[in-house]
Amino acid sequence: MKLQGIIPPVITPLKDRDVLDVDGLERLIEHMLVGGVHGLFALGSTGEAPSLSYAVRREMITRVCKQAKGKVPVVVGVTDTSITESLNLSKHAADCGADAIVAAPPFYFPSDPPELLEYYQHLNSDSPLPLILYNMPGLTKVNMTLDTVKALMDEPNIVGIKDSSCNMMYYQKLLKLAVGREDWFTLIGPEELLCESVMQGGNGGVNGGANLAPKLYVQTYEAVMNQQLDKALAIQKKILQLGDALYGVGKHVSSCVKGIKCTLSVMGICDDYMADPLHRFRNPERQVIKQRIRELVDADVIDLSQFPQHAMG
Amino acid sequence: MKLQGIIPPVITPLKDRDVLDVDGLERLIEHMLVGGVHGLFALGSTGEAPSLSYAVRREMITRVCKQAKGKVPVVVGVTDTSITESLNLSKHAADCGADAIVAAPPFYFPSDPPELLEYYQHLNSDSPLPLILYNMPGLTKVNMTLDTVKALMDEPNIVGIKDSSCNMMYYQKLLKLAVGREDWFTLIGPEELLCESVMQGGNGGVNGGANLAPKLYVQTYEAVMNQQLDKALAIQKKILQLGDALYGVGKHVSSCVKGIKCTLSVMGICDDYMADPLHRFRNPERQVIKQRIRELVDADVIDLSQFPQHAMG
Amino acid sequence: MKLQGIIPPVITPLKDRDVLDVDGLERLIEHMLVGGVHGLFALGSTGEAPSLSYAVRREMITRVCKQAKGKVPVVVGVTDTSITESLNLSKHAADCGADAIVAAPPFYFPSDPPELLEYYQHLNSDSPLPLILYNMPGLTKVNMTLDTVKALMDEPNIVGIKDSSCNMMYYQKLLKLAVGREDWFTLIGPEELLCESVMQGGNGGVNGGANLAPKLYVQTYEAVMNQQLDKALAIQKKILQLGDALYGVGKHVSSCVKGIKCTLSVMGICDDYMADPLHRFRNPERQVIKQRIRELVDADVIDLSQFPQHAMG
Amino acid sequence: MKLQGIIPPVITPLKDRDVLDVDGLERLIEHMLVGGVHGLFALGSTGEAPSLSYAVRREMITRVCKQAKGKVPVVVGVTDTSITESLNLSKHAADCGADAIVAAPPFYFPSDPPELLEYYQHLNSDSPLPLILYNMPGLTKVNMTLDTVKALMDEPNIVGIKDSSCNMMYYQKLLKLAVGREDWFTLIGPEELLCESVMQGGNGGVNGGANLAPKLYVQTYEAVMNQQLDKALAIQKKILQLGDALYGVGKHVSSCVKGIKCTLSVMGICDDYMADPLHRFRNPERQVIKQRIRELVDADVIDLSQFPQHAMG
Questions:
Q1: C50–D118 CB contact, under 8 Å
Q2: Do B196 and C196 touch (CB under 8 A)?
Q3: Is the pLDDT of residue B313 over 70?
Q4: pLDDT at position A313
Q5: Does residue B271 carry a pLDDT above 70?
Q6: Do A168 and D168 touch (CB under 8 A)?
Q7: Which of C89, C115, C276 is best to mutate for the D interface (most D CBs within 10 A)?
Q8: A71-118: pLDDT as tens digits
Q9: What percent of chain C has pLDDT over 90?
Q10: CB contact under 8 A, A83 and B141
Q11: Do D275 and D14 form a contact (C-beta atoms < 8 A)?
Q12: Whole-angstrom Cα distance, residue B101 to residue B87?
């Protein structure tokens, strides 16, 4: 399995703190599959994984795997401060037929590079599934050094990396490291960097906005792969426009997830309940989101026909 | 319950990643009770709580409560990124007879002050036990503002705070806030600040070193309470000496926990296995710790007679 | 010269961006001398030194030295990113009869410990005056490690340190380092920590509030030196009250300097013009400061009789 | 003047702490002009400006302007903590015929967005030359918000921005802001990002490596402008290779400047003395640099024929 293309980090639709919105999840996955995504990443940061109980995490894995199996690869986030719990999730994911696990560094005690290397070696040797590294220093506060990644590339069962560092100097060096391993893949997190990362040889994006407008991201990826640079840059501008409109309504680092979840609710896809400590947008922000969606529809960034008929109702 | 005095954050003795060192834990608790501690705090950062599986966390709660019940109050750390899992632990702690829970802010998604306030209100309203706040910005990367603490003081079931910010300006302002609530307590984390915090009106310390040399900390606390300032400062110097000797062997933020755990192992109290991503000291560091213990014994900082006969063997 | 007691970091009164308020400066120095301060520190952070032209810095040195000479020691801040300019200031300070220079690490390029050590050795060997180290990581973003301080203690012409790290664990270790050098002094920056630092053996404070209410700080220092702990803690509470009232009006790190400067203006001591990029309080904040001064007068924190008759007019 | 293309941040060759290497500077400028650079930026971070005395800074301005005048535009860094000194430099630059000044935010007191806006308005209104903004949060610790840049675009005399944030999400938003102002330019600092920034519509690079291998950077820029994407990416890889080889020898943030200066010395262009607090590479690092230069020559990254005959001697 060499993962490439657009692999959205799936939002976790909730009805309550500990209750999955099952119908919403089904609609959401269908929406993305119809949009042409190349894989699904359940239980990432965008999926609020660390805020969910293990019961909900397991249910999420079961349902995503069941619906997407045989259609696109499914990878599952097992990031945790406890390696035992990560491995428990990994076993469940294997049982459900997932294709790989994704793990960011443990994020309570900062681990130094030798400890982090050993951590990943332990996780990998005890996990039944291939492992994808996940560099997310903004939330884990741990920097995955290039030397650590290089050392981990020696393990055949560690198969790729998702980089959400927002640091394109680091990203280019990741690409350079990967030259010797044909089956390795290097995915980018922030959607604003999708176009330039793929231009430079990156393998695709794990972009939150692909929950909303999967085709936009798929088209950007494909345009670059087809060497249509101008077309790619033009679509990339729409992605930037979507983010400016929907991710800047709240005031904090979580504005992005909140904006996506609120938009999905407005569009009739799923509930926008969020697990503590985050909180969905209250009515004033929701009204702003509604107005901005209308503007994005007018600007041909969002295609209304891809959503349920009652959207925006 | 107004918690005061020395309440050590109990080390979690492990035989393996997911196996408690049951005999070691029993010896450790006995060692601290004999040393005169005023309470026990299970599953804090020093107890490596975030690295442990929930099964081990529950067993730890059960055993500490059983052994200490009726002797000193037991408080239990439930810090987690998932409020549902925190509440699950809280219920188990209540079933075991614990006296309160301790919770630092969720530490994956940074919560802004209104979100953090709401988080604690939710946690408190659904928890069967009184709640102690835990300010630990170095590891959670969330600052608990004075306004948040002030607002939470309106909830009678929230009963105190442990401050590990290392910021004595903040700590003094916490003491000032508490003036109106007689039953509130303000404990200090870093042992180097025990003496000065109690001098200023603080209620005691949750100090890692009290796993090793409980009497030293108890005597410091009591000297200040008895207005014996010179005596208190003299013992405080020994505490500083102990820390300089034992916490500076490793190179990283976790050196302190590693030093304590290694020393407890050398002294015959319990195993020093550590859960990923941390790793116990290998032999070279262990030899340094042994040498330093000898020096601390010679300097009357550590009292050998308080340890099992085979200690240092 | 062993500096001890209260050495206020003198505010730099300005009439315009590049014009000293000469009369105001004279009144300010007189106010502090009458208040019993033990020395004066010109051109620190509170004195906005980095924002001033070298012409104004030289004039400030000349005037402070002239007025205070023979009464109390004068030390002069020469912190700069260019060692050549620091040495130019140092020579001018020597010509004016200053007693020592004070230097924080250069603050544009972060220097690693060996570079910082060498920097201070160079500065010291070429400076005509004794050198006082200044640890101010909040503004310089450079941590002065204990090893660096220890190595610099070998230079007889380096005579002490002012610590504004707000980290009392570090401060205690500074005191421990100084045990072998009788003539060394360890001063504290943040006034909230004055009492506890002196209790532990510190030599005094470089506290901004001593521009306003010098007696308050002098009395705290003397109470601790006379072993009157309860009295010291009581006055320390007034210092905390003064800071809460006057330093929290603005919204940023510079609120403290702005509050002091505005209060001095309201009290008829000197102009409150500030050099770019800071800006004095506009009228709404000035009205708040006026109200708070009245409350501090009522609470016996500020003694009106120490100010010019037209104060608050 | 719309600055575009490659505008190297000129290294400041020194013979001693306060003595310019005049011959070396002349050779260096000639080397870059022959290499086809489109402008010169004197006294940036790479030029160690904050570490230099004002006398040396003025001499540097005089000499660079004299040699380059009429050939390429010259812009001059006036970044300082004192606006008066920045304006003094600006007047000198105007007298010497420079084309614009470049200013990062003052970097001792952190300014909040309204203060920073006002600061730039003051600097601009009193400066005789057009002003280029310089975003360099890694060293100034001040974030220049997009709102601040947007507001400053209303001043016709503020003409562009150099962005060294390493944040391509921010950079893309800068490009979007500039849509309404035809004469505005947006330059990138880090050379690793040159190719992708120009692809997206950026106007060029202020890249340290262009002191060494100006043609490499000029060719990358021109390839992108000529829509030769594959060629551009191929040369960009050489730029990455150059940086990996020469900037990673030292251990700290200043490794990049040290590597450039050492290489220029090895290549016979100029002296590699550095102003405190930085220090040129000692012999062991210099030998490593020599070896790496040889490898870069073998790999066709560095073209020996562009250097003096005695290079590497």
A1: no
A2: yes
A3: no
A4: 62
A5: yes
A6: yes
A7: C276
A8: 999 999 999 999 999 999 999 999 999 999 999 999 999 999 999 999
A9: 94
A10: no
A11: yes
A12: 10
In 3D space, the residue among D210, D149, D218, D146 whose CA is nearest the CA of residue D184 turns out to be: D149
Give per-10-residue mean pLDDT for chain D (313 aa).
95 97 98 98 97 98 97 98 98 98 96 94 98 96 96 97 96 95 96 96 98 97 95 95 94 88 97 95 96 96 88 70
Alpha-carbon dihedral sign for residues B229, B231, B237, B243 = negative
Beta-carbon neighbour count of residue A252 at 10 Å?
14
Contact list in D for residue C55 (CB cut-off 8 A) is 84
- The answer to which of C249-258, C293-302, D6-15, D98-107 has the lowest mean pLDDT is C249-258
Q: Write out the CATH class of domain B5-306.
A: alpha beta
Beta bridge partners of C177: none
- Tokens 């030194």 sit on residue: C49
D169 and A229 within 8 Å at the Cβ level: the answer is no
Q: What is the 3-state secondary structure (H, E, C) of chain C?
A: CCCCEECCEECCCEEECCEECHHHHHHHHHHHHHCCCCCEEECCCCCCHHHCCHHHHHHHHHHHHHHHCCCCCEEEECCCCCHHHHHHHHHHHHHCCCCEEEECCCCCCCCCHHHHHHHHHHHHHHCCCCEEEEECHHHHCCCCCHHHHHHHCCCCCEEEEEECCCEHHHHHHHHHHHHHCCCCEEEECCHHHHHHHHHCCCCEECCHHHHCCHHHHHHHHHHHHCCCHHHHHHHHHHHHHHHHHHCCCCCCCCHHHHHHHHHHHHCCCCCCCCCCCCCCCCHHHHHHHHHHHHHHHHCCCCCHHHCCCCCCC
Q: Give the best residue of C164, C191, C199, C253 to mutate against chain B (max B CB count within 10 A).
A: C199
Q: Do chains B and C touch (3 or more CB pairs under 8 A)?
A: yes
Q: Which residue from B minimizes the CA distance to C194?
A: B169
Whether residue A17 lies within 8 A of chain D, CB to CB, comes out as: no
Q: Residue C1 has what pLDDT?
A: 77
Per the CB < 8 A criterion, the answer to whether C311 and C265 are in contact is no
Domain ranges (residues) in chain A:
5-306
Q: Which two tokens stand for residue A178?
A: 């990967």
Residues of C in contact with B167 (CB under 8 A): 166-167
Residue contact D122–C276, C-beta within 8 A: yes
Asked if the Cβ–Cβ distance from D252 to C107 is below 8 Å, we say: no
- Using a CB-CB cut-off of 8 Å, the residues of chain D touching C52 are 82, 84
Measured between beta carbons, the chain C residues lying within 8 angstroms of B248 are none
CA distances from B310 to B31, B302, B306, C249 (A): 15, 15, 12, 61
**How far apart are the C-alpha atoms of A191 and A195, rounded to whole Å?**
8
Structure tokens of B90? 């809280």
Residues of D within 8 A of C111 (CB-CB) are 277-278
Q: Which residues of C touch D53 (CB under 8 A)?
A: 82, 84-85, 88
Residue A107: CB atoms within 10 A of its CB come to: 25
- Taking the C-alpha atoms of residue C286 and residue B277, their distance in angstroms, rounded to an integer, is 53
**Is B139 an interface residue toward A (CB < 8 Å)?**
yes
Q: Assess A275–B contact: CB distance below 8 Å, yes or no.
A: yes
State the number of CA atoms in the 13 A half-sphere of C240 facing the CB: 22
Q: How close are the terminal C-alpha atoms of chain D, in Å?
A: 41
- Interface residue B18 vs chain A (CB under 8 A): yes
Give the model confidence (pLDDT) of B32-57 as tens digits.
999 999 999 999 999 999 999 999 99
Distances (CA, A) of C150 to C107, C133, C160, C177, D126: 21, 12, 11, 7, 46
Residue of D nearest to C46 (CA): D109
Contact B190 C169 (CB under 8 A): yes
